[in-house]
Amino acid sequence: MSGTVGTFIEEGGGFRIDTPAGLTPMNNVLYNLDGFVCEAGQNGMTTGTKKFDDGETAVLIRGDQCALYLRDDETGDVWCIGGFPYVSEVEEFCCRHFDAYTRISSVRKGIYAKQRVFVPAEYAGEIFTVTLTNRSDTVRQISVVPAVRLQLSGFAAPRFFTGQQGISYGDFLEEANGYFHHSRNPWQKKNNCYCAVLCTNEAVDSYEGDENAFLGANRSMSCPALLLSGGRLSSRYANAGVPFGALMIRKTLAPGESVVFDYALALVPDAEAAAAVYRSIESREKAEALFEKNVLAVKERHSGLTIRTPEKKFDYFVNIWLKKGLEYCIQKKSATRDNLQFAHGLTMSEPELVRRELLRILRYQYQDGHTVRSWQPMDTAYYSDGPVWIVMTVCGYLKFSGDLEFLRQEIPYFDGGSGTVYERLGKCVQRIHKDRGPHGLPLIRYADWNDALNLPDEQAESVFMAMGLGYMLLEMAELEEYLGHPEECSRYRQMHAELKRLINDVAWDEAQGSYIRGFSAGERVGASDSDGSVIYANPQSWSVIGGIVTEERVPRVLAAVDRWIDTELGCIVNAPPYDEYQEKYGRISAQTAGTGENGAVYCHATGFKAYADCLLGLGERAAGSLLKVIPDSAANPASASGALPYALTSCYNTNPYCYGRAGRPWLTGTQCWVMNTVVEGILGIRKAYGGFRIRPSLPDGWNAAECHIRRGRAVYDVYLKRASGWGGILADGREMEGEYIPFQPDGKHRIDVFL
Q1: What's the rounded Cα separation, in Å, for the pair 461 and 447?
Q2: Which fold, 443-567?
Q3: 663 and 650 in contact (C-beta within 8 Å)?
């Protein structure tokens, strides 16, 4: 697990980077579960935003708008620990990204400096710890200057009122021992948390609130003009300019001497809250206690589900990086499809967080069952797929948590009135079942899962959505059976049988041995006779996930995927890609061939495919697909793709001019499906009502694997082993009949699965 861009350390719990510059920013995501998130780069620069419950997002700082500068006051030498934004030559550079924090360090001219950043649970901010050690043989006086260009925007406001410039002011706040920016914009009252404080537990020599004075004419964080001139900060009241803040801390270090101190940067509603932030770090002991508390809390959350397999990449991602990414995405995004899948990926490790997220998301469902696309920014375009993810995530939560009382929870609808969760599940099915086109398949509306497939025909139908409906019907039948409603269970199964016959009659492409993507304006989209792409990935995988494909057609579907869809980088969305814009297909055909949703490897779709493989018992095939899209694969190393080795990415381009280049890291639903595929697919530990169903699909060559799951007060240690003789399951030493393992109220339980 090493490469030219860095190395996993501490059993995959950290990632080490030894160069301050590379092909792409090597960011870590840090956050709390109250909506504050930041990205910490390998250079020590961060971003910061706070998402409120209604989706409004306050921006503290954007990328490349903050820095920690060091200056030797005798020589005038200025540098940054991470070599940027003020370009600095440093030695012994090291960045280490961990689950709960990031730490960078370097040496310049005998001064060792280390910076550590984490996000506390207590408020919307970041805490930085600075360590300086004088390795030289002379006394050194070093100025440490954190500086930030504040954003303090995100609220709805009319023209000229969207920011703070010309309205607000900054000054030193004694009770916070730091610089406080008083945000006075009258339109920020809805979520009044747009003031900011930059404070420290060290003596402040001087401060600055004037961006021009600090940065000079270029106004760039890469050129701190005031520091380069050798001057101190002005310590003047800052009025009506761009929100900006800097503090100067001066330390005299004897040879071999070290100092450690902390500072915090936070969004706050007022000066009283700013003072509270300072009090949280007013001593080294308090700051370190917050750090230790944060590390332990994150470790506790992420220890609810762990695995141990022959494939270390799976271990690293499931145990740390997927949970981290899913939590971050829930805090970062405000979109129904996305957030529901992020939550679903955490159902077996953090059910309490899933419940909280469901209560938020379900407020954006309409009375007829469909959902808004996103609530920040508000997007009411009619995407048809929202109900699929509601059923998936609610049922997944119910299976693992056993919280059937949740079905009776009353939640307001987006367009008025309210309904229980149980009623909403029924409306999800009704919406897609009734909203059908000429062939009897669900209408695609503006789009379904594929945002770029915008078919302008109002009667355009989506085969993917038909298969999604099949999945929903099976889930609802299983729920109703568990609730003791045999008639409802039978009704859903009958609806599924009818739907299965219909899809196989009208959406099967006999010439190609695959399912088409849809119907639009008399054309079979994604069929062998289609104009452009002749096959799409999702109808093939979802024919399995939705229980639609017939037994005799499975080999043909697999062969079609192998021929058209599967590549050395993963599964492409559609083949061949559209090579010119055609209005009848929408935005997908406008995208450059082999990029984005037009013929690129979309990692999310690869996750669907891998999960479907496991349902067919093809664990080797599934594992191979996942290892293609988990970054730093043999065919596409991170040094070439630009992917972060510890974070899944949205896609990999197949266009020859940018072949293999990665898309956006972290913010991808792929994380949910990698988690599902490894834990429930390959290891086969599937959540069910009242217990687990054990259906492993181990890859060839895997002789053993483990999974440890905490559910309430009970802990389950599951051991899977290949056996030459008897095959079966022992639960606490007792032989079980079948694959079902009932949940226990408490205690530690051992499950041995012999294959």
Answers
A1: 10
A2: Glycosyltransferase (1.50.10)
A3: yes
Judge whether 194 and 267 are in contact, CB under 8 Å: yes
Give the integer Cα–Cα distance in Å for 741 and 719.
14
Tokens of 126: 């970041």
What is the C-alpha separation between 109 and 89, in angstroms, rounded? Answer: 10
Question: For position 326, what pLDDT does the model report?
Answer: 98
Give the pLDDT confidence score for residue 726 in this predicted structure: 83
Q: Give CA separation, 536 vs 522, 543, 573, 589, 652, in Å.
A: 18, 12, 6, 14, 16
**CA of residue 113 relative to chain centroid, distance:** 31
pLDDT of amino acid 2: 40
Cβ atoms of 641 and 650 within 8 Å: the answer is: no
Report the distance separating Cα 267 and Cα 735, nearest Å.
57
Identify the DSSP state of 318: I
Domain boundaries, the chain: 32-299, 443-567, 693-754
Q: What's the pLDDT score for residue 485? A: 98
CA distance 54 to 52: 5
Specify whether the CB–CB gap between 288 and 261 falls below 8 A.
no
Instruction: Give pLDDT, residue 115.
Output: 98
Tabulate helix, strand, coil % of the chain (nearest 5).
30, 30, 40
Is the CB of residue 309 less than 8 Å from the CB of residue 28?
no
d(CA 341, CA 330) in angstroms, rounded, equals 9
Q: How far apart are CA 50 and CA 33, in angstroms?
A: 10
For 1, residues 6+ apart whose C-beta sits below 8 A from its C-beta are 7, 8, 12, 312, 313, 316
Q: Report pTM.
A: 0.97
CA torsion 743→745→751→755, rounded to 10°? Answer: 0
Token look-up 């849809």 returns: 518
Residue 517 is encoded by which pair of tokens? 């993507």
Mention the CATH class of domain 693-754.
mainly beta
* CB 241 within 8 Å of CB 169: no
For the domain with range 32-299, which CATH number is right: 2.70.98.40, 3.10.580.10, 2.40.30.170, 3.30.1330.40?
2.70.98.40
Q: How far are the Cα atoms of 53, 368, 382, 397, 444 from residue 365, in angstroms, in the given order?
A: 16, 8, 11, 18, 17
CB 577 within 8 A of CB 533: yes
- Dihedral sign, Cα of residue 464, residue 466, residue 470, residue 472: positive
- Which residues have CB under 8 Å from 55's CB, separation 6+? 334, 375, 376, 378
Where do we find the tokens 């520091």?
227
Buried b (16+ CB within 10 A) or exposed e, 436-451: bbebebbbbbbbbbbb
Which helix H or strand E contains 490, and what residues bound it? helix 486-506
pLDDT, averaged in runs of 10, over the chain (755 residues):
77 95 88 97 95 94 95 97 95 97 98 98 98 98 97 95 94 97 95 97 97 92 95 90 95 98 98 98 98 98 98 98 98 97 98 98 98 96 98 98 98 98 98 98 98 97 98 98 98 98 98 98 97 97 98 98 98 98 97 98 98 98 98 95 97 98 96 98 98 97 97 98 90 96 98 97
pLDDT for 1 equals 37
Structure tokens that stand for 726 in this block: 């008897």
- The residues pairing with 131 across neighbouring beta strands, listed in sequence order, are 114, 260
Residue with tokens 């079902």: 740
With a CB cutoff of 8 Å and minimum separation 6, the contacts of 598 are: 452, 573, 574, 577, 578, 588, 589, 591, 592
Following DSSP, what letter does each residue of 161-201 receive, concatenated? -SS-TTT-EEEEEGGGTEEEEE---TT--TT---EEEEEES
Residue found by looking up tokens 């009897």 in the block: 440
